[in-house]
Specification:
single chain; alpha+beta; NADH Oxidase; four-stranded antiparallel sheet; 9 helices; 4 strands; oxidoreductase; Nitroreductase family protein; Nitroreductase-like; Nitroreductase
C-alpha cells in the first residue's frame, strides 16, 4: 500500500500531537518523493557556521531493515516502519565550506570576496579543532535536524520515534561508515498502527531560570 497523505497542519497543533510511535502499519509505504520532501524541510534547520554536518541514510529495503533489527536492539519499529532514517554527523563538514558559499554566491546572498573569506575562516577555524569537539558540534547539529525532521513528518500526517538505543559499532560495520562520521540517532518513520502514548512535561517554572541558575 502506498498513499501520499500530503497533510499540512498548524505548527502549534503539530508540536502538541507529535508523540513517539513504536507500532507502525507495515503495509504502508511512504513514497521516495515524500521522504525527500520531509528531508528537504528538515535540512532548513540551523547548524554551526551553516556547515550542515548532517548526513542521512534512508533505509527502506526490508531485507536491510531485518539486518538492522538486532543492531537496533530488536525494536520492532525497525522493520515495521516505512523507513528508518539514520542521522550521521560529519566531523569534517568544514571541507564543504567553499561549496556552501558558492551556493550562497549563486543565490546572491554574498559577494565572491565575502564568500571566499567566510569559507576560509570556517575551514581554518574548524580544521584546527580536536576531533571530539567537532564530533560534539556534529551531534548537536544532528539533534537539531532530527527534531525538525520529526516535526516535518508529523505535519504531513506521519509519525516517528527517535532511537538512541542501538549498537553504533554494529551499525557502522553494516553500512561501512567512515571514521569521520559520528552516529547521532535512528528515526523510524511511518504510519502509526497504534497512536503514541501521551506524556507529561515538568512545569515550566521547574525547568526555567531567569538571569541566573539556582540548582
Amino acid at each position: 500500500m502506498s498513499t501520499e497523505l500530503k497533510t499540512e497542519v498548524e505548527f502549534n497543533k503539530v508540536i502538541r500531537e507529535r508523540h513517539s510511535v513504536r507500532k507502525y502499519d507495515p503495509s504502508w509505504k511512504i513514497s521516495e518523493e515524500e521522504i525527500k520532501e520531509i528531508l528537504g524541510e528538515a535540512v532548513l534547520a540551523p547548524s554551526s557556521s551553516n556547515l550542515q554536518p548532517w548526513r542521512f541514510i534512508v533505509i527502506t529495503d526490508q531485507e536491510l531493515k531485518a539486518q538492522l533489527l538486532p543492531i537496533a536492539n530488536n525494536q520492532q519499529q525497525t522493520v515495521e516502519a516505512s523507513a528508518v532514517i539514520a542521522v550521521l554527523g560529519d566531523s569534517e563538514a568544514y571541507r564543504n565550506a567553499e561549496a556552501i558559499y558558492e551556493y550562497a554566491e549563486a543565490a546572491g546572498y554574498v559577494t565572491p570576496e565575502v564568500g571566499a573569506a567566510m569559507a576560509k575562516r570556517s575551514r581554518d577555524g574548524y580544521s584546527s579543532m580536536p576531533v571530539e569537539v567537532l564530533n560534539n558540534i556534529a551531534r548537536v547539529d544532528g539533534g537539531l535536524v532530527s527534531m525538525q525532521l520529526m516535526l516535518a513528518a508529523k505535519a504531513k500526517g506521519y509519525d516517528t520515534v527517535p532511537m538512541g538505543g542501538f549498537n553504533p559499532d554494529g551499525f557502522r560495520a553494516l553500512f561501512q561508515i567512515p571514521e569521520r562520521y559520528t552516529t547521532v540517532m535512528l528515526i523510524a518513520l511511518g504510519k502509526a498502527a497504534v497512536e503514541g502514548r501521551p506524556t507529561v512535561r515538568l512545569p515550566l517554572e521547574q525547568v526555567t531560570h531567569w538571569n541566573g541558575f539556582q540548582g
